[in-house]
What does this fold into?
Amino acid sequence: MAEAQTKAQPSPKQYVQIAVLLAILTAVEVALYYIEQAGVSGRIVYPTLIILAILKFIIVVAFYMHIRYEKGIIARFFTVGFFGALMLYTVVLGTFGVLTAMSG
Amino acid sequence: MASAASPTSTIFRRPKQTSGWMSWITTVDHKKIGIMYGYSAFFFFILGGLEALILRLQLAGPDGTVLDAAEYNAMFTMHGTTMVFLFVMPVGAAFFNYLLPLMIGARDVAFPRMNALSFWIFIFGGIFLYSSFLFGTTGPPSGGNLPGGATDASWLGSTINGGWFMYQPNAGPRFSTGTVLDYGAIGLQILGLASLISAVNFIATILNMRAKGMKLLRMPVFIWMTLVVAFLLLFSLPIIAVALFMVTFDRQLGTLFFDTFQGGDAILWQHLFWLFGHPEVYILILPAMGIVSETLPVFSRKPLFGYPAVVFAGAAIGFLGFGVWAHHMFSSGITPVAQAAFGLATMTIAVPTGIKIFNWLGTMWMGKIKFTTPMLFSLGFVALFVIGGLSGVTHSIVPADWQQTDTYYIVAHFHYVLFGGAIFGIFAGLYYWFPKLTGRMMSEKLGKLHFWLMFIGMNLTFGPMHWLGLQGMVRRTWKYPAEYNFGTWNMVVTVGAFIIASSILIFMVNWTKSKRRGVEAGMDPWDARTIEWSIPNPTPEWNFGVSPDVQSLDDWWHRKYDEDEDGRPVRRPDADSTIAQFHDQGVNPPAPIHLPTPSYFPFFAGASFLAVGYGVIYHTRGWGLPLLIFGVILLLSSLIGWSLEPLEEEHEEVHA
Amino acid sequence: MSDVAHEEHVHESTGVETRKLAMWVFLSSEFMFFGALITNYLLFKGRVGYTAPYPAEIFDIPFTSVSSFVLLMSSLTMVLADHAIHRDDQRSTRTWLIATALLGMVFLAGQAFEFTTFVVDEGMKISTNPAASAFFTLTGFHGTHVLVGVIMLLTLIGISFRKGRLSTATGLNLENVALYWHFVDIIWIVIFTVVYLIK
It folds into this structure.
């Protein structure tokens, strides 16, 4: 098997540290939900929530799925799939006027 | 045949048969799977063709009486569904299966058992769809009734009847109360799964299984088009899967996705369907484009003009194919901005298509063209596809499209693209690679007769539809009154359809006779360019006696020919001895070769989908739920057995 | 892409192991699948005026937060199993696999409890309104993916007990199951934010 991994993968200790970070980010997300409940505008809370989700997403893909340590071809597949889906469905929701309704 | 390693388990011993029906059921050989794909697809082609002939009998004159309205709905739906999902897609899979490993110099595809699984899921999906003729029911819409107050249509009308696009809410539970559209939604779901699995398999094969020296830009254009098709399948099938699940849930579980009375959305279905449906039309046409990109250079005795441009144009068509879906929806009330944007995007897609056409013309320009049957079909493809492509561009002009929508003009357009395009390309490929399959040549005399009859019949059938459509003859309508004056041209269309049918009969005679008594092909009968011709005909079980070492694009050609200073090919003095040498090492491999071992599990995993499908439809009956559970258990146990199967036997030695 | 073609690896022209490559190819298509389901929910959640209740009115955020945390931690145990098998540490591999399967089952049990609460206590069935249809379909398909993952994990655990060890050469290999498992986790990260936390 051609493993061909150039960079050393994290150690178990580092994996646990990453998990702690993910748990903290999740706690922040839930806290933000209650902050919004308490009356802070969604215009501030929602973008923050989305950024946090993207952060968690990237951390899992990069470290747990080892995409950082793989050949570039894999990252390319993944980005094409992700951004392809994002673009197509954004257009679909756009034609329904859902996006304008949400941002307004 | 002896296995090098002893099996670790007696329960999971792998099957050994190399001939007889068992060898076909358990085979994982890409060539056998390709042949099975081909024959079953052709069988469905005959069924779809018969349905078309019945439609044309009904429409031959005004006020036709062959079919009633319900039967007409069922016939045009089954004709479209069959031709798209059960003929053109699987025949593409047949070509991919047979040729992909041969053209990249591989022993087999990356996952031979998964390949067999794709085939068996497709077969059982097709059986499931067609079993709706026997078991399906067509109820009246809730609160309404069928024509004449009938409660169910005749057997001919009791099959899938919502159009191949199954527009909602017409195909939902409120307006189609019988079971036939459950057969439609679940059947297409099963067929989609088969294609998704093969797409993953082909992508992995093309990227990872190439022979030494077979760089991406040395691959034949046909392989490039296979790769683009696989990506289109990969990204479009999940969308239709979701859409079909939604229909199934609407009909089985009472969800409200498309129930416009309770907040559901009919336009959402159109988006999801065409997000899949437009890439799907490129899935249908790109294999044919790949085929003629192989045949035109061979019979013009020139390299393909602008190879990188053809490759990148193909990729661009695939990419743009995802950005034009809403041009199927110009009359559905989407916003003017969306109409303008999708109209422009649709015009853009003509650019890479035009690039391909000009490259094909450039290939033939100044070539020493040999008018063999496969070349005639390739020329027919180019000519007819141009007509279909141009009428396609007219749809991108939104006001014109409003006029054309749901008329026979659209029917004419997509038959020029799919019949004149895809099917002519497919026949070019069948004639061209027939020696590879059988070691014999097809009769040129019958082949040319087939071509000319089909070419004339095709234009008689679909040409007049252009003006019938522009005169206002609408699609999917079972009859028309005499005073519309559509009768004459419709008669011409029907005569044309029967000419096509007769040409197909000639093809079948030719195929059967040539298979047994055709002229022996020998090595390299077409003096071809690509490496699948560097091995004996018919293909040996092990494909290549020695793994190829690819030096250039059109590797096989360059082993036979040099160029003079004007770029004209000059046959190398050692060409004949090269061919003889390749023949010898193809027939007698110098070293033992490992081949994948057959397996029972793909067949059973595929068969389980029949039980799952019927189980879902009839889950409210006493036996439905147990059947469903049985199907799921059969599927799971097949897959677990699959993963426990001794892999040591995966590679078995053949002592040739 | 031709720059990655390694001439010496006849069977792995890209240099990526073929089964792993296939798994990534498959996962990239799953974005389209879940993308469509999320789109459905976003489209329908704003359509009010039909039969109540709507999903957003009855979400139990503390409960779902715990579920999300459980699934997140199962990714940790999964990656530890993956790490262990690469060092051929069969015992730890088995332990972490069992932990992952258990966490996965806890998540599924949580989802079953959530669905039951919604249907029985709150009266929101899959056929109540389109938003409910979209919610149950989206989270139901995610749950089905978790279930498939649990079945694959249990099969691996079974092989590990029966043969005493797991090999990377079996058709069902741990590395691909791990990739699948993490993918199901990142889809939940998106669902948790887009469906549950943002109104």
The CA atoms of residues 75 and 94 of chain A lie 28 Å apart. Chain A is about 75% helix and 0% strand.
